[in-house]
Specification:
The structure holds two protein chains of two kinds. By secondary structure, chain A is α/β, with parallel strands linked by helices. Helices cover 37% and strands 15% of the residues of chain A. Chain A contains eleven helices and twelve strands. In chain A, a hairpin with a 2-residue loop joins strand 5 and strand 6. Chain B is α/β, with parallel strands linked by helices. Chain B has an eight-stranded mixed sheet, with helices on both faces. In chain B, strands 1-11-10 form a three-stranded antiparallel sheet. Chain B has a two-stranded antiparallel sheet with strand order 12-13. The chains are: A alpha/beta, B alpha/beta. Chains A and B meet through helix 11 of A and helix 22 of B.
Chain lengths: 397, 846
C-alpha cells in the first residue's frame, strides 16, 4: 500500500512538470450568426467574412462549423442573387463557389449550438455537424447577432445566456475538447457575454461594453441594407492586410492593439485572466494559432505523462479506486457499529441499510425554552463578535 | 337649484373621521408621528434621511444596525408615506387595541421579526406590565357598548368619559367592551349610552371657537346633502369638460407630444439608390402623349364626355400598355347608386408577379384617372404606367406589385378592394385576377403640369381609421431625407412649427377623422387593415415627375423589405407636424373626460331619484314610509331603529318609477332611425328641403312631447317630477356610454359630439313662477335649437360655403358605398340625447 502511494506521488510530480506544454495539434473554428431576416444581412456577412479568412489561413472546411440561420444569397430582396457581400465595393463575393454551411435555417438553435460544443450528439449526426476537437485543439468561436446584457438572441425565438455559454465551455474543458480557446463576439453589449467564463485557457474579446451598442459599418445602397458591423470590419481589416500568410508572426496582442475606439464607435474588451500566464503570456500567442491551421501529430508515447495519456488515465483510475475503497470501508464500519447492538445475525458480508426504527411524534419540550434562549443569545453574541472582528479586520485591510 | 326630490344623507359621517383620528392608540400615534417627522425631515436637502436610514444590505454593520428599524418608517416621498400610513393605521390601531401597546412595540420594532427574538420577554410579563400601566386607557379610544347593535365604532369615548362612567358604574374596560357578559341589564346599557352622549355634547360645547368652526362646517356638510348630490356633480361635470378641452389644447406642446420615429426595423427607409431617371423620362413622355391623344379624341368625338371622364378607349390604352410591359392585366366593371345618383366605371389593373417571391403578399399602387378633387390625374396615371414597366424589370421584389387604374378616386378603389376580398355587392364585378394578402397601398396624384415643391401626404381613412404611423414616417423620411422634398400634411402649406400651426394641424386632422369620409383613393383600403397613403405633389418648385417616381420607388423598396404586416407603430395617433405626433395614450383622456361628464351626471341623478325630502312626503304617495312605519309596528325595536332614523333624518327611500322614462328614452333613440333612413335614402335634390323641414320638426317635436308628458299622455297619470330626472339620467347614461366607447374607435367624432352635447348635462326642468319659467325656457330652447344636428349642419355649410346638398350627398354616398357610420352616431346618439334635453326644458312651460 505504501509503495503504491509513493508511486502515485511520483506520478503526480511528473504530471505537474510535464503538463505545461503550449503546443497544439489541430485548429477548429465555430462561426455562428444568430439572426435571420433580410435587414440582418450584415450578421451573415460578418460570419462569412470570418469564414473566408480562416479558410484562407488554412483551416479546412471539415474543421469549420458554419452556422447560418438565413439564406441571404437567395432572398428575393437580394438585388444580386446568389451572392453575399460584406463591402459596398462588392469586390469579393463571400458566397462564392466553395462554401459549406453546416447548420442552416432553423437548425441554428441554442440547443444545437451547445450540443455541438459539448459533443452531446446522436450517433447518426454526420461528421460535418460535429466539433471534432480534442485536448490538443485550438478552437476559435465567433458569434454575431443581436444581444443584450448577458444574452445573445437566436433567431428571434430564444437566447443563449452568458452562464449557458460559460458552462458549455466549462464542459468542453472537462471533456478535453480544447487546448486553448479564442472567443470573439460582435453584438450589442458583447463584453457581458464572457463575464462568467470560468474554464481555463480561454481568451475572450467582444465588440462593446455593457450598455453600448455595436454599430454597423456601412450600407450598400443597391443591396439596400448595412453589410458589415464595425468591430468585425476592423478585425477583418487587420487580418486581411497584416496576417497575409499562415506563417505570420503577428500576435493576439497586435490584433487587440489594433482596436481603435474612434473607428469602432464602441469600447471593445478583452479578457485574459483565464489564460495561464494571463495577459503577458496570452499576448504572445500568434493570430494564426487560432485562425490558421497546424497539423502536428502527437505520437502516443507509452511513457508520456501529458494530459490525456494512457499513464495519466491509469493513475487517475487507480486513485479513484483507492478513494472509493476507503470510503466503502469507513461506511461499512459505521453501519456495523449501529447494527451490532440490535442483532448479531444482521452482520452479513454485504452491507445493508437496516434502519427500521419507527419515528414517533416528538414531544415539543417547552421547559427548555430558557435554555434555548441562552443558546440563542450566545449564538447571537458569537455572531456579533465575529461580525465585529470582521468589520475591524475588513477596515484595516 | 330647486328640486322636488330630497337627498340621501352623506354616505359617511365626517365627524367620525375626526373622532377616529383623535382616538388612535398611543403607539399607532407615535408611529404616524415619526413617519410624518421623517417625511418633513426629508424635505430639506442638506441631510438625506433616506440615505441615513434606508435598508441597504452593503451598508449594514454594527454601527448601522439602526437601519433595520428605521427603514419601515422612512419613505421616499409624500405619496409613499401617505399611502403607507393609510394602509398601516387601521391594522396597527386594531392590533394595538387587541394586544396592547407593549406587544405592538415589541413586534413593530423588530423584536418579533426574529433577529432579536431572544430578547422578547414572555407575553404574560408584557400583559402584566400593560395592565399596570393602563396604556390604552390613557388616551381616548373606542369602546363598543354593544357591538351587536351599534357596531364597533358607533359611540366614542374619551378619557374623562371613561372615568365618569367608572364612577357611576364600577365596571372596567373589559366589561365596557362586552357589557352583556358583564351582566348588565339592557336598561343599564341605555343609561351608559345616554351618559356618553351627554358628556360628548358637553365636550363639544366647551371647546374653543376655532374647533367650533370646523365642527360646524362638518355638521353642515353632513346635514346638507344638496352639496354632494346636486352641486358637486354639476361642478365635476363642468370640470370634466373644461379639463377635457384644456387637455386637447396642451397636446401641441413639446412636453406632451413626441418626435416620430421608425419602429419597424425591416423598413430601412431611404437606404437604397433609386434609379428611376434618365431614359425612363422618355418612356414617361411617350405614354403621356398617347394618353393625351386619346383625351383629345374623346373631347372631339363625344360632347357628352366631360374631359376628366375616363372612356373605354382610355381603359383599353392602359390595358394594352400594361400588357406590353409584361404584366398580367384584367378589368373590372362596377356600378353604384346612391341618393338617386348612379356611378359606374371600369377599373384596369395589372400584376407584377415577384420573380423570386412566393406570391403570398402584394403591394398596391393606385393612380385614379380623376383625383379626389375631381381633377384629371394625367401625370399620375402616366407615372404609374412608367413605373409598372420599370418595376417589371427588377428581380428583387419579394411581393407582387399590383397597379390599379380606377376611373375616379371615390368609387373605383372601393369596388376593387371590396371585390379583392370577395365582399362586393352584386352590382360590382368579381376580380378575374388576384394576388396575395395586401401589405400596403400608395396612391399617386399629380394633376398639374408644372414642377412641384413639396409632397402632401394624405392619410385619413374612412370612419377615421388611420394607416400605421410607420408608413407615414417612412414616406416623410424618404421624401425629406433621401429625396430632399419637403413633406406636408393636412393642407398646412406653411408650417412654422409654432403652437398655433401644430394645433391647427391637429384640429384639421380631427375634423377629417370626425366626419369619417374618404379623403382619397387610399381611404377605401383602411377598413381592410391595409395601410395606405396618398402622395400629392404640391406647390411651385423644381421637382419633376421623376423625383416623385424615385420617391415611390424607394417607398416600394421599403415596403418590399417588410417581413410582416406593418404592426410595430401606432394606429391611433394625432399628427401635428410631419415629424411630431401624440399617441392614443396621451390624447384619449380628453374625449374620455368629456364623455365621462355625462356619466357622472347620470349617476348623480339616479342617486337623487331614490330619495324624497320631509317636506315632500305628503305629496308623494308611495315609498316614503319604510323604516318609520315598521318601527311603529314593532315598538320593541324602537331602540335600535332610533339609530337609523337619526341617520336618515329629513329623507326617506323612495321607489323609482322606471317604466315611462325607460320606454321614452329607448323610444326616442329608436326614433333616430327615421332621419337616419330618410337622409340616406331620398334623392339628392330633396336634401336641402329635408334639412329645413327637419329644423322645424326639431323645434316642434320637443314641445309636443313635453306637453304630452305633462298632461299625462291622456292615458296615464301625470308624470311626477322624479321621472323627469330619471329620463335625463337614462339619456345621459346612454350618451356617456356611447361616447366613451366611440372615443376608443374614433376619438375626434366622440370629442366633437361630446362638446356639442355638453349643455345637455346642465339642462333640467325649470321650476318657479311662470314669469321666470317661460322666458328662461324659451331662451334655453332657442339656444338648444341652435345646437341641433340639422342646425349645426346648416351653420357649418353656411360658414364653409359648401352647399348642404353636396354634404348630404357625400354622406349618403359614404353610407351606401364606403360603409361610413358617422350618420349613425349623429342620428342614434346625438339627436336623441339632444331631443330629450329639449323635452326637459320644454316641459317647464306646461
Amino acid at each position: 500500500m505504501a509503495i503504491l502511494l509513493r508511486l502515485l506521488q511520483a506520478l503526480a510530480l511528473l504530471l505537474f512538470f510535464g503538463g505545461a506544454t503550449a503546443e497544439h495539434t489541430s485548429n477548429w473554428a465555430v462561426l455562428v450568426s444568430t439572426s435571420r431576416f433580410w435587414f440582418n444581412y450584415r450578421h451573415l456577412a460578418n460570419v462569412l467574412s470570418l469564414y473566408r479568412t480562416v479558410k484562407r489561413l488554412g483551416i479546412p472546411d471539415s474543421q469549420i462549423i458554419l452556422m447560418l440561420p438565413d439564406d441571404m444569397a437567395c432572398n428575393p430582396r437580394n438585388a444580386f442573387p446568389g451572392t453575399v457581400y460584406s463591402n459596398a465595393d462588392r469586390a469579393v463575393d463571400l458566397y462564392g463557389d466553395n462554401i459549406e454551411v453546416d447548420y442552416r435555417g432553423y437548425e441554428v438553435t441554442v440547443e444545437n449550438f451547445i450540443r455541438l460544443l459539448t459533443d452531446r450528439l446522436d450517433e447518426d449526426v454526420p461528421r460535418s455537424k460535429r466539433l471534432g476537437s480534442d485536448a490538443g485543439s485550438n478552437v476559435l468561436v465567433y458569434m454575431t447577432g443581436h444581444g443584450g446584457d448577458q444574452f445573445l438572441k437566436f433567431q428571434d425565438a430564444e437566447e443563449i445566456g452568458a452562464w449557458d455559454l460559460a458552462d458549455a465551455f466549462g464542459q468542453m474543458w472537462e471533456k478535453k475538447r480544447y487546448h486553448e480557446l479564442l472567443f470573439m463576439i460582435d453584438t450589442c453589449q458583447a463584453n457581458t457575454m464572457y463575464t462568467h467564463f470560468y474554464s481555463p485557457n480561454i481568451v475572450a474579446t467582444g465588440s462593446s461594453e455593457l450598455d453600448q451598442s455595436s454599430y454597423s459599418h456601412h450600407a450598400d445602397n443597391d443591396v439596400g441594407v448595412a453589410v458589415i458591423d464595425r468591430w468585425t470590419y476592423y478585425v477583418l481589416e487587420f487580418l486581411e492586410t497584416q496576417v497575409t500568410s499562415a506563417n505570420s508572426k503577428l500576435t493576439l496582442g497586435d490584433l487587440f492593439d489594433s482596436y481603435d475606439m474612434s473607428k469602432i464607435h464602441s469600447q471593445p474588451g478583452v479578457r485574459w485572466d483565464l489564460f495561464p500566464g494571463a495577459e503577458q503570456e496570452g499576448r504572445l500567442r500568434t493570430v494564426v494559432d487560432f485562425f490558421g491551421n497546424v497539423q502536428n501529430v502527437e505520437i502516443e508515447n507509452a511513457n508520456a505523462t501529458d494530459p490525456g495519456s494512457l499513464k495519466e488515465d491509469l493513475a487517475e483510475i487507480a486513485r479513484l479506486v483507492e478513494k472509493w475503497r476507503k470510503r466503502d470501508e469507513e461506511y461499512s464500519a459505521i453501519i456495523g457499529n449501529s447494527s451490532q447492538s440490535q442483532s448479531e445475525d444482521a452482520q452479513s458480508s454485504t452491507v445493508h441499510l437496516k434502519s427500521k426504527k419507527t419515528v414517533g411524534p416528538t414531544k415539543m419540550a417547552e421547559d427548555s425554552s430558557w435554555g434555548k434562549r441562552l443558546v440563542g443569545l450566545s449564538v447571537v453574541g458569537a455572531c456579533t463578535a465575529v461580525w465585529v472582528a470582521g468589520s475591524i479586520l475588513g477596515r484595516s485591510a | 337649484m330647486a328640486t322636488p326630490a330630497a337627498l340621501p344623507p352623506l354616505p359617511f359621517n365626517p365627524g367620525r373621521v375626526r373622532s377616529y383620528l383623535v382616538r388612535l392608540p398611543l403607539f399607532t400615534r407615535l408611529v404616524l408621528l415619526v413617519i410624518l417627522a421623517f417625511w418633513l425631515l426629508e424635505l430639506q436637502t442638506i441631510w438625506s434621511v433616506v440615505e441615513w436610514g434606508a435598508l441597504i444590505p452593503n451598508e449594514i454593520n454594527l454601527g448601522t444596525m439602526y437601519r433595520l428599524n428605521t427603514y419601515p418608517i422612512i419613505h421616499t416621498g409624500f405619496f409613499h408615506a401617505f399611502l403607507n400610513a393609510l394602509a398601516l393605521t387601521p391594522l396597527l390601531e386594531r392590533f394595538e387595541a387587541e394586544h396592547g401597546t407593549l406587544t405592538s412595540i415589541a413586534l413593530f420594532v423588530g423584536l418579533g421579526l426574529g433577529y432579536l427574538k431572544v430578547l422578547v420577554p414572555p407575553e404574560k410579563v408584557l400583559r402584566w406590565i400593560e395592565g399596570k400601566l393602563n396604556l390604552l386607557g390613557r388616551l381616548p379610544h373606542y369602546v363598543s357598548v354593544d357591538q351587536k347593535t351599534y357596531g364597533r365604532d358607533y359611540i366614542y369615548n374619551s378619557a374623562h368619559l371613561v372615568s365618569s362612567v367608572r364612577r357611576k358604574f364600577p365596571v372596567n374596560n373589559a366589561e365596557l367592551r362586552a357589557p352583556q357578559q358583564a351582566g348588565l341589564s339592557p336598561s343599564t346599557r341605555r343609561n351608559i349610552r345616554l351618559n356618553l352622549l351627554v358628556v360628548v355634547d358637553w365636550e363639544t360645547s366647551s371647546n374653543g371657537s376655532r374647533s367650533m368652526a370646523l365642527k360646524s362646517a362638518i355638521r353642515n356638510l353632513r346635514n346638507n346633502p344638496q352639496l354632494l348630490f346636486v352641486r358637486l356633480p354639476n361642478i365635476l361635470s363642468f370640470l370634466c369638460i373644461v379639463v377635457g378641452v384644456v387637455w386637447l389644447l396642451l397636446l401641441p406642446l413639446n412636453d406632451y407630444s413626441r418626435q416620430t420615429y421608425i419602429s419597424e426595423n425591416a423598413l430601412l427607409p431611404g437606404q437604397v439608390h433609386a434609379y428611376f431617371t434618365g431614359s425612363e423620362q422618355n418612356i414617361f413622355r411617350g405614354y403621356k402623349k398617347e394618353l393625351q391623344a386619346l383625351i383629345q379624341e374623346g373631347r372631339e368625338n363625344g360632347p357628352q364626355n366631360p374631359e376628366v371622364e375616363s372612356t373605354p378607349a382610355i381603359s383599353n390604352k392602359i390595358y394594352s400598355i400594361l400588357q406590353a410591359a409584361g404584366l398580367k392585366v384584367a378589368t373590372q366593371k362596377y356600378e353604384y347608386t346612391s341618393a338617386g345618383i348612379g356611378y359606374q366605371g371600369e377599373n384596369v389593373y395589372g400584376i407584377i408577379h415577384a420573380p423570386r417571391g412566393d406570391a403570398t403578399e402584394a403591394i398596391v399602387l393606385v393612380a385614379a384617372w380623376k383625383t379626389a378633387d375631381d381633377e384629371l390625374n394625367l401625370n399620375g396615371v402616366t407615372l404609374a404606367l412608367t413605373l409598372a414597366r420599370y418595376f417589371k424589370r427588377w428581380s428583387l421584389w419579394s411581393k407582387d406589385i399590383i397597379f390599379v387604374f380606377p376611373p375616379d378616386s371615390k368609387t373605383g378603389t372601393q369596388a376593387w378592394i371590396d371585390a379583392y376580398h370577395d365582399l362586393h355587392p352584386a352590382s360590382v364585378q368579381s376580380l378575374p385576377l388576384k394576388s396575395g394578402a395586401l401589405q400596403g397601398a400608395l396612391v399617386i396624384e399629380y394633376p398639374f403640369e408644372n414642377h412641384f415643391h413639396t409632397l402632401h401626404i394624405v392619410y385619413d381613412g374612412v370612419n377615421g381609421q388611420l394607416p400605421n404611423l410607420d408608413l407615414f414616417n417612412t414616406a416623410v423620411a424618404i421624401a425629406g431625407g433621401q429625396m430632399g422634398i419637403g413633406a406636408n400634411l393636412q393642407e398646412m402649406w406653411k408650417h412654422d412649427d409654432s403652437y398655433q400651426d401644430r394645433l391647427k394641424t391637429i384640429l384639421r386632422g380631427m375634423t377629417k377623422q370626425g366626419l369619417g369620409y374618404a379623403t382619397g383613393a387610399h381611404s377605401s383600403f383602411m377598413p381592410y387593415h391595409i395601410d395606405a397613403i396618398t402622395l400629392q405633389p404640391k406647390g411651385e418648385g423644381w421637382e419633376d415627375e421623376m423625383a416623385l417616381g424615385r420617391t415611390i420607388e424607394s417607398l416600394c423598396r421599403s415596403l418590399n423589405n417588410l417581413l410582416e404586416h406593418l404592426h410595430q407603430s401606432f394606429f391611433f395617433y394625432l399628427l401635428m407636424q410631419s415629424n411630431r405626433f401624440v399617441s392614443i395614450g396621451t390624447y384619449l383622456p380628453s374625449a374620455m373626460l368629456i364623455a365621462g361628464n355625462f356619466t357622472i351626471m347620470a349617476i348623480a341623478l339616479w342617486m337623487r331619484t331614490g330619495y324624497y325630502s320631509d317636506s315632500n312626503k305628503p305629496s308623494v304617495p308611495a315609498g316614503s314610509e319604510g323604516p318609520k312605519s315598521k318601527s311603529d309596528q314593532k315598538p320593541d325595536l324602537v331602540a335600535q331603529k332610533e339609530v337609523t332614523e337619526t341617520k336618515t333624518v329629513g329623507s326617506a327611500v323612495a321607489e323609482r318609477v322606471l317604466a315611462l322614462p325607460l320606454s321614452l328614452v329607448s323610444g326616442l333613440h329608436l326614433l333616430g332611425l327615421v332621419p337616419l333612413w330618410t337622409f340616406n335614402t331620398i334623392f339628392h335634390q330633396y336634401f336641402t328641403a329635408a334639412t329645413y323641414i327637419f329644423v322645424v320638426v326639431d323645434i316642434v317635436l320637443p314641445l309636443i312631447l313635453a306637453a304630452l308628458l305633462s298632461n299625462g299622455l291622456g292615458i296615464a297619470r301625470p308624470i311626477v317630477p322624479q321621472q323627469y330626472l330619471l329620463i335625463k339620467s337614462f339619456a345621459l347614461l346612454l350618451l356617456g356610454l356611447s361616447l366613451s366607447t366611440l372615443a376608443t374607435l374614433n376619438f375626434s367624432l366622440s370629442f366633437m359630439i361630446g362638446l356639442l352635447c355638453a349643455p345637455l348635462s346642465f339642462i333640467t326642468r325649470i321650476q318657479g313662477p311662470a314669469a321666470v319659467r317661460y322666458p328662461i325656457s324659451i331662451l334655453g330652447l332657442a339656444l338648444l335649437n341652435l345646437l341641433s344636428p340639422p342646425a349645426v349642419l346648416i351653420g357649418v355649410c353656411w360658414y364653409t360655403g359648401v352647399p348642404i346638398e353636396t354634404v348630404l350627398t357625400q354622406a349618403a354616398f359614404g353610407w351606401d358605398v364606403w360603409g361610413m357610420w358617422t350618420q349613425v352616431v349623429v342620428w342614434c346618439v346625438w339627436w336623441p340625447a339632444w331631443l330629450i334635453g329639449c323635452v326637459l326644458l320644454g316641459s317647464s312651460m306646461f
